[in-house]
Design a protein that fits this description.
single chain, two-stranded antiparallel ribbon, about 35% strand, 23 strands, about 20% helix, elongated, 21-stranded mixed sheet, about 425 residues, alpha/beta
């Protein structure tokens, strides 16, 4: 027993201990395969000479157990209780729709700005004979030339007027001190020399007709390249007295973008007796595509159609059937709404525009049904009305004068797409 040899039972016990240590290391390696750790040191038993002793009972029992390490590891690898380490989520791709919508909105904004610039310079051309959009005096050496012409109105009475002017201002004034009536036209061109101006003046045609009686074709002629009027297609209307027809044709003036810097300003001065001798309300029709329209002291059925420019009507009396409007510009009316004396009689008066303001001044006794609407804007009134507002728009329909004993059936329509509506009481 003292010869220093190790018994086979002790050797078997040490082999089992080493197998258990290796199994524990592999188990930890499976659970923490990505973690660094420091391997514990295993102190090995040094063989020494021992006496041969009898093995304790617990060692005997352990020697009877078997440990199949390979089978246990395989079972653990396929165990359903093992939880895999979570993987990072893939980065979500951003949607391209915000970029596309932002680009569309930016494109619309620049398109609106460009359209506003086109309208602005076109109106300036119409009003001052300045630089047009394309062609007609874009050079730095161009000058503005004007040619005035005045013609007397020889009619004994005036019941009907029609003014057709593509580019330029229109002004009609009733002078209480005048005994005669006249029409003045001013041709405006922008070219490089006087010789070119004379040539351009000849291309602009101003037609003035003064039929004394009968049915007249109240139509606006369109222009051609040479400035010669083409055939008219507007339905005829009946003139009970004399009629004044003024039509201007300017070459290359059709469409929004014009190839000319030419314009014609028209100013008509009327005498009160010329209108009174007609015995009927004046029928006034004005078509002004680009330019301002000014009416002062005229009473009757007024039909004014503008495209780009302001419309200013003062000291006027509107009769049922009147319509005043423009596309781009402000509309101002200061006068009387001639509602029928019978409050049950239907009558209609319309003032409208697309973009701009509507400013109306009426006597305090005006008795009409007001129908006012603006899609984007506000309604302000000195009359006691209660306008309804919603999401930037405003509207009202009801009596304008709530103190009237009998409400009139006549309707005054004030309609604007983008802009404000202001209604004032006239100072007595």
């Amino acid at each position: 027993m003292g010869n220093g040899r190790i018994r086979s039972e002790d050797d078997e016990y040490r082999r089992r201990r080493r197998a258990e240590v290796r199994y524990n290391e592999e188990e930890y390696a499976d659970e923490y395969e990505n973690e660094e750790y420091e391997e514990p040191l295993v102190k090995r038993a040094r063989p020494r000479a021992t006496q041969r002793v009898q093995q304790p009972p617990q060692y005997a029992q352990r020697s009877q157990r078997t440990y199949p390490p390979q089978e246990r590891r395989a079972t653990r690898a396929t165990s359903p209780t093992r939880v895999a380490r979570p993987r990072p989520r893939p980065r979500r791709r951003r949607s391209v729709w915000p970029v596309l919508l932002g680009g569309c909105a930016l494109g619309i904004f620049f398109a609106v700005v460009a359209a506003a610039v086109v309208v602005f310079f076109t109106v300036r051309t119409a009003q001052t004979g300045g630089v047009p959009i394309i062609g007609g005096g874009l050079g730095a050496s161009t000058q503005t030339f004007k040619s005035d012409a005045t013609q007397a109105i020889t009619l004994g009475s005036l019941a009907q007027m029609q003014i057709c002017n593509k580019i330029g201002n229109v002004s009609i004034v009733v002078d209480p001190n005048a005994d005669t009536a006249s029409i003045q036209t001013t041709k405006i061109v922008r070219v490089s020399s006087k010789a070119n101006a004379d040539s351009e003046f000849n291309r602009i045609n101003v037609s003035v007709q003064q039929p004394a009686t009968g049915t007249q074709n109240m139509a606006c002629a369109s222009s051609t390249t040479s400035g010669t009027p083409t055939t008219t297609t507007t339905p005829a209307s009946t003139a009970t007295g004399g009629a004044l027809l003024v039509n201007t044709t300017i070459p290359d003036s059709d469409g929004l973008i014009h190839g000319t810097g030419d314009a014609v300003d028209i100013k008509i001065t009327l005498a009160p007796k010329l209108l009174a001798s007609a015995g009927a309300p004046l029928q006034l029709n004005i078509l002004a595509a680009l330019g301002n329209v000014t009416i002062d002291g005229v009473s009757g059925v007024l039909n004014i159609i503008g495209s780009s420019g302001n419309v200013n009507v003062t000291h006027a009396t509107l009769i049922s059937g009147s319509s005043i409007g423009t596309g781009q510009g402000n509309v101002t009316f200061n006068g009387i709404i001639a509602a029928p004396s019978d409050p049950t009689t239907q009558a209609n008066f319309v003032i409208r525009n697309e973009t701009g303001t509507i400013d109306v001044t009426l006597p305090t006794t005006t008795n009409v049904v007001l129908s006012a609407n603006t899609n984007v804007g506000t309604i302000h009134s000195d009359f006691p009305i209660n306008a309804t507002t919603s999401s930037g728009s405003a509207s009202y329909r009801g009596p304008l004068n709530t103190s009237a004993t009998t409400q009139s059936a006549a309707i005054l329509t004030l309609d604007v797409s983008t802009g404000n509506i202001s209604i004032h009481k006239a100072q007595s």
